[in-house]
Amino acid sequence: MSEQIATKWDRNRERRMRWWHDARFGMFVHWGLYAQLGRHEWVMNRERIPIADYEKLADTWKPKRRPAREWAALAKKAGMKYMVMTTKHHEGFCLWDTAQTDYNAAKRGPGRDLVREYVEACREFGLRIGFYYSLMDWHHPDGARCAKDEAARRRFLDFTQGCVRELCSNYGKIDILWYDVSWPLKSPELWESAKMTAMARQLQPNIIVNNRAQLPEDFGTPEEHVQHAEKGRAWEACMTFNGSWGYMPCATDWRSVREVLGLLQNCASGQGNLLLNIGPKPDGSVPDEAVPRLAAVGKWLKQNGEAVYGHMNRTGGQLEWMPCGQWTLKGKTAYFWCRNWPGKELALGGFKTRLVKASYLVGGKPIAFEQTSNRIVLKGLPKASPDKIAGITVLKLDFASRPKQVLGAGCVVL
Ligand code: GLC
């Protein structure tokens, strides 16, 4: 039975995931009780805070009105196409109105369903909706015991499946189910992962599911690094903005606009997605440092989105790294993301394909070029990078067929 179901979802994967591949860029939101402490979302575990003390945070949490609208507005402005919010992080506090536990936002401090507000905000701003759900639970009495006690495991699985069922039943169409940390059970059988996800799919036939319930499902989730997966396997790199997922004001190593764009280029060149995190403050507002950065990223994407969104081809095996920048590729068109502007001329070695046209992506102005058997030289470039937002100018190169660049390590001109 479960094998039959798995095959069906494998077969329609491409259709289910098309929007997600085209979307490329999403916003991760880590929000929970931990925001009040401002010392990372693992604070309960790392500082060994007793449950009875930590629980008090459930009553002192008083977010402002509808902060999710601010996140969604910012995500939209940043050029992101979807969001994934923590409905329950490892701390165990449920952000929605659940019947599975009273430890939830509706019954405690916030006094309302924060997941519903999030869902409504996503819909208002035309963003796809993802639910993050931590399997690991530091608060539930069976969350650790389930590893050693069969009755506890049964109770914990009923709780877990009850949560997933509610999330997939009570909020209309949900696009992504994003499981996290499957501690402490050591196999998908012990978690009943196939059964749980089959249930989610029954309720949400188009949903896409990540790989963190110990089954590969629809996409992989490299964390804090970009790793192109093998061909045929979808992936999404999830990244903090400042080193912490949860709100942490003393973590000040914010990624720059150029760095975020570099991540996007790296993801797009491997047909992957980028899920960039914000950790809202306890009242729900977005940390000040994130706002102008995301606005600038969005401004840049508005002009250069053609090199990012939609169906991209993998550059691996086709195009080579260059000292002045990197590539993305769409059919016969290669986009050169020039981040170290050379001035005057740019030489690109090793092309085995005929260049038909070179132009600036922004504005479309043609660029003069010469192509010889082993080099393309773009000519008449301005002294400084034309892109004033991030100093990353995209040069659009249209080839006669799918471009192929071969450089190798040596300097032999054949
Ligand atoms: C890790 C962390 C967690 C974070 C997640 C995001 O698994 O435990 O805090 O939510 O990564 O990918």
Number of helical segments with 4 or more residues: 12
| Biggest sheet layout | 8 strands, parallel
CATH class call of the largest domain: Alpha Beta
Helix/strand order: HHEHHHHEHEHEHHEEEHEHEEEEEEE
| Helix content class | 25-40%
What is the percentage of strand-forming residues? 15-25%
From the alpha carbons, calculate the radius of gyration and give it in angstroms.
23 Å
Bound molecules: alpha-D-glucopyranose
SS elements, strand count: 15
3D architecture notes:
This protein is of the alpha/beta class and 414 residues long. The chain has two domains: 2-307, TIM Barrel; 325-399, Immunoglobulin-like. The chain has helices at 2-11, 13-23, 43-46, 51-54, 57-60, 67-77, 114-124, 150-169, 188-191, 193-203, 257-268, 290-304, and strands at residues 25-29, 82-88, 128-134, 176-180, 208-209, 219-220, 234-239, 273-278, 325-330, 333-338, 344-349, 355-360, 368-371, 375-381, 393-399. The protein has an eight-stranded parallel β-sheet with strand order 5-4-3-2-1-8-7-6, sandwiched between helices. It has a four-stranded antiparallel β-sheet with strand order 9-10-15-12. The protein has a three-stranded antiparallel β-sheet with strand order 11-14-13, with no helix packed on it. Helix 11 links the parallel strand 7 and strand 8 (273-278). Helix 8 (150-169) packs parallel to helix 10 (193-203) and helix 11 crosses helix 12 (290-304). It is elongated and about 70 Å long. The relative contact order is 0.12. The chain binds alpha-D-glucopyranose. Alpha-D-glucopyranose binds at residues 30, 41-42, 180-181, 223, 238, 245. Alpha-D-glucopyranose is lined by residues 30, 41-42, 180-181, 223, 238, 245.
